[in-house]
Design a protein that fits this description.
Structural class: alpha+beta
Shape: elongated
InterPro entries: Sensor-like_sf (IPR029151)
Oligomer: single chain
Strand order of the largest sheet: 8-14-13-12-9-10-11
Strand content: 15-25%
Number of helices: 12
Largest sheet: 7 strands, antiparallel
Number of domains: 3
Radius of gyration: 32 Å
Protein name: PDC sensor domain-containing protein
Distance between the termini: 72 Å
Helix content: 25-40%
Number of strands: 14
Length: 394
């Protein structure tokens, strides 16, 4: 199995530290040999080493069996209580049974006293004949060590993370409850599309079940903003954010943002048991995040996400007629159809809405795809809801 990108990045940092620390410690190891039998002179030698070694927090010397000989030297002086402490079983002494190892840099750990991420470097001390006679140990606070300027890059491959097993165990005892956002989802998706294309939002998390959204703006990327359903339902909401050209660092084509949002909607309504709870899109790294009712979470690239149909997520048995990946709706064409149908009169519109609610597709709408018919239904319903009780005034 290949190392993950994160592990490769950590390995590069460890190689840098090994080179930096190992060279410094090897220079001091040879100077320690004459003082191994004299604790006081050994402490004095360690004080000089502490003053000369960069970044270190604690310095001490152990014998060949891993038992501490010197005091533990730190910036405040010498702690003699450390003498005779057996460190042989500590993780950083894992190489004690391999006499060929000269230098070992431990894995990072949380220190016992300060509870901070730390590492320990251990340099083997050899006498003039090359025999191992002890160890020089140096503890470092990980935050104070030098790092390379190369930042870990999130891998592009699909990542799946399992959630709470208690939620998975009770999955089939639950069903989707219609949220306030579900009732106005087309409007909400349009608002998010406008915010991302024209108003400088580069990252959004849409929480369908709790009817809220969290957004990050290019003008103030370190602060997130929470939009409630009352705010999302207000058509004037976009006026609260200045118009900005599409973010130059974005790698998601602006025409694909609506497609991603449409796929979110499809995953939200596709099944009453397994459904999308929240979806996120970051236009800069191109990542889509999905969290489902089973508490499973997926992270994948937007183009890979758009290449999948609903049958991929829910299985072909649930969708025997393969559902195509989400496509952005031609809203101008659909709005013309809505206007034409609305002009036929309230009675005809109510008959059409009733037929659609009973899954009886009228002849006038059979040429439209299900997603298009759903859009037409919601727009006509919104028109009729202007009138009290959905009944036209004469």
């Amino acid at each position: 199995m290949n190392e993950s990108a994160l592990q490769q990045s950590i390995a590069q940092q460890r190689a840098l530290l090994t080179e930096t620390l190992g060279t410094a410690l090897s220079d001091y190891a040879g100077r320690i040999v004459p003082y191994l039998e004299d604790a006081e002179h050994l402490d004095e030698c360690m004080r000089k080493a502490f003053a000369a070694l960069d970044y270190c927090k604690y310095v001490y010397v152990m014998d060949a069996d891993g038992v501490q000989l010197s005091s533990t030297i730190n910036r405040y002086g010498a702690d003699s209580e450390g003498r005779r402490r057996d460190r042989a079983e500590r993780p950083y002494m894992s190489h004690i049974h391999d006499p060929a190892v000269d230098f070992n840099l431990s894995e990072a750990y949380i220190s016992r006293n300060k509870k901070r991420p730390s590492v320990t470097a251990v340099q083997t001390i050899r006498d003039a004949d090359g025999r191992r006679v002890g160890f020089l140990g140096v503890d470092y606070d990980l935050r104070e060590l030098p790092h390379s300027n190369v930042m870990y890059e999130e891998p592009r491959q699909w990542r799946q993370i399992k959630g709470d097993p208690a939620i998975r165990d009770g999955l089939f005892l639950q069903h989707r409850a219609e949220s306030m956002m579900d009732q106005q989802l087309d409007h909400v998706m349009s608002v998010h599309e406008a915010l991302m294309i024209d108003h400088g939002v580069h990252h959004c998390q849409i929480h369908f079940s709790s009817s809220r959204s969290t957004i990050w703006h290019v003008d103030d990327p370190y602060v997130y903003r929470i939009l409630t359903m009352d705010e999302l339902a207000d058509p004037n909401m976009c006026l609260a954010y200045p118009r900005r050209p599409y973010f130059e660092r974005a790698i998601v084509p602006p025409e694909d943002i609506g497609k991603v949002l449409a796929q979110f909607k499809a995953l939200r309504f596709a099944d009453e048991t397994i459904y999308l709870r929240y979806g996120s899109l970051n236009t800069v790294n191109g990542k889509v995040g999905l969290n489902f009712s089973c508490d499973g979470t997926h992270y994948l690239n937007w183009d890979e996400f758009l290449s999948k149909g609903l049958e991929f997520w829910f299985g072909s048995e649930s969708f025997p007629q393969a559902v195509a990946p989400a496509e952005i709706l031609d809203k101008a064409r659909l709005d013309e159809q809505v206007d034409e149908l609305a002009s036929s009169g309230c009675i005809q519109v109510n008959k059409l809405l009733y037929a659609l609610e009973k899954s009886d597709v009228p002849e006038s709408l059979r040429e439209f795809a299900p997603a298009e018919r759903d859009y037409i239904y919601r727009e006509l319903k919104a028109v009729m809801d202007v009138y009290e009780g959905g009944v036209c005034g004469l």
